[in-house]
Design a protein that fits this description.
single chain, mainly alpha, two-stranded antiparallel ribbon, 7 helices, 2 strands, 76% helix, 2% strand, elongated
């Protein structure tokens, strides 16, 4: 019942962002990515993960404390976003949305301002920003916990780490939610309202 309640709540949240039709089509991705990030964040808080080392190198690390994992998540979303955008809008409307001047400017000023409205740089930066945000927050939390675990004796360190573990439980959930929220918003911004979804 708890798992069902969790995914129903998550489904309703995604539906409030994307609308019913897009949520039915793409919830498989958003539900999976949220669950993977959340479980990975919490697995990184297990005792010994990041703190048991061999010659200074951790034997176990949280998945999202590794830039390779978060960069893959960001790049995978970028590929899916490109595919979904072209699938929903058609190739012509996809390029018009990216390169066409907003506001319907015509003539000389329209030609001059076209480069300003190009979103290519923004789109290229999105996967890097998604990856860096997730990695930075999780890696920072892991580093703080590891540092605090070595500052005092066994009992003092255990007591010092407890507040940071509690904070990391909250941060792990927030980061999974932020990743879900941003990816859903990026898709919605490109595709637009459901009533306007038509293939050429």
């Amino acid at each position: 019942n708890m798992v069902e309640y969790f995914f129903e709540t998550l489904y309703n949240f995604v539906e409030s962002l994307l609308g019913p039709r897009l949520t039915r089509k793409y919830f498989w991705y958003f539900g999976t990515i949220f669950t993977i990030i959340l479980v990975s964040n919490y697995m990184g808080l297990l005792p010994g993960v990041g703190t048991i080392t061999y010659h200074g190198v951790p034997l176990f690390r949280g998945a999202n404390a590794d830039l390779n994992v978060t960069m893959f998540l960001g790049l995978f979303y970028a590929v899916m976003w490109l595919y979904w955008s072209i699938r929903e809008q058609g190739l012509k409307h996809f390029f018009l949305h990216l390169f066409g001047p907003k506001g319907g400017m015509k003539g000389f000023m329209g030609a001059v301002l076209v480069p300003i409205f190009m979103e290519c740089l923004s789109i290229a930066i999105r996967p890097i920003a998604l990856a860096a945000r997730l990695f930075g927050n999780i890696y920072a939390g892991e580093t703080i916990i590891e540092t605090m675990s070595h500052m005092f004796g066994p009992l003092g360190s255990a007591l010092c780490v407890l507040p940071f573990l509690a904070i990391e439980l909250l941060v792990g959930f927030i980061q999974a939610l932020v990743f879900l929220l941003l990816t859903a918003i990026f898709l919605k911004l490109q595709i637009g309202d459901e009533d306007s979804q038509r293939h050429d």
